[in-house]
Design brief:
Length: about 300
């Protein structure tokens, strides 16, 4: 069984293969002809859902969308039971949901399941971001990058994915919003194997200093709008806005990254988001390339999985 639910479910070598194929983005013809790819979205999405639908269709496959409003999930059918049934119709699944729900679905589905983003990880996003950095700078190994803001799903995947490919990652968060210990541990372990490293800080200027890319994301993830909590967060995160002043501490050729959607003039100023240093649309475009590359390579990764064929 092979699942891609967090960044280190791929080896560094497999990640490099995904990036190589995505960089070339050659037409994949009818690689998915006759195959149905289930797209489960229990949380909202714009980019991930549309780029997956387009990728699957462009390869001759059928994308099948399942959400929690118009399915029996709304009536309480469990994700494991839903997964068991979906395996009767579809060959492969991408799912966006809280991590516990993704794990339950994957256990029931019993076929390759790929995270389309959870509260803990967003591995396909970070592959697109690494591709963006590769297109910009050529070589990824040894590249210093920073992440400023909330220690959230994107922060976890930036730390883990980038450390696995030998980048040096500096993270600055408010003291009460550090990334989770398990994510830090995994990223540090990945860095030990690759020559990468992770440094955790609270001073945003120190984190950004001399880095070649500055990444940020929203200050509140996967939560309903709560005005009171939002105002409290704004106070805690005020010094962590990525604006031109903070960005000026980065290397002169640094690029600005954001997975989107952005909250303009909250975690990033509109001026920087729209500036010539911003690569956010390139990141979004690269989601499609990475989806296509993954869809081509997933069968190989399943064959290469340690317990394949047993
Ligand atoms: N970056 C990203 O995953 O965007 P969506 O939530 O719109 O899919
Ligand atoms: N951290 C963000 C990522 C969006 C792709 C969120 O969970 O909303």
């Amino acid at each position: 069984m092979f699942n891609l639910l967090k960044d280190d479910d791929l080896t560094a070598e497999q990640m490099t293969r995904v990036l190589g194929l995505a960089a070339a983005d050659e037409p994949a013809g009818h690689a998915l002809a006759g195959r149905s790819v289930l797209l489960v979205f229990l949380e909202r999405s714009t980019r991930t859902r549309v780029s997956l639908e387009v990728a699957v269709s462009s390869m001759g496959g059928s994308p099948v969308l399942l959400d929690n409003l118009r399915s029996r999930l709304a009536d309480g059918e469990t994700l494991a039971d839903t997964g068991r049934v979906m395996a009767q119709y579809t060959d492969l699944a991408f799912i966006r949901a809280y991590q516990d729900d993704i794990d339950a679905f994957a256990a029931g589905f019993g076929r390759t399941t790929v995270s389309a983003g959870s509260d803990l990880w967003h591995p396909t996003q970070i592959l697109a971001d690494l591709l963006t950095l590769q297109q910009e700078f050529g070589n990824l190994r040894g590249l210093p990058i920073s992440f400023v803001g909330d220690g959230n799903d994107i922060c976890n995947s930036v730390m883990l994915g980038a450390c696995a490919l030998g980048l040096h990652v500096r993270v600055a968060t408010p003291p009460d919003h550090r990334p989770a210990g398990f994510a830090v541990e995994r990223a540090r372990h990945a860095g030990e194997l690759s020559g990468g490293s992770l440094t955790l800080l609270t001073d945003p200027a120190e984190a950004v200093s001399g880095t070649r890319a500055v990444y940020t994301d929203v200050w509140r993830s996967m939560v309903p709008d709560d005005q009171h909590e939002k105002e409290e967060r704004f106070v805690e995160f005020a010094d962590y806005q990525v604006n031109e002043k903070l960005f000026s501490h980065a290397d002169p050729d640094a690029v600005f990254l954001h997975c989107l959607p952005a909250r303009r003039d909250e975690e990033v100023t509109s001026a920087l988001l729209d500036s010539s240093r911003s690569r956010v649309l390139q990141q979004a475009r690269n989601r499609l390339r990475v989806n296509r590359a993954l869809l081509q390579l997933l069968p190989d990764f399943a064959r290469e999985a340690p317990h394949a064929g047993r």
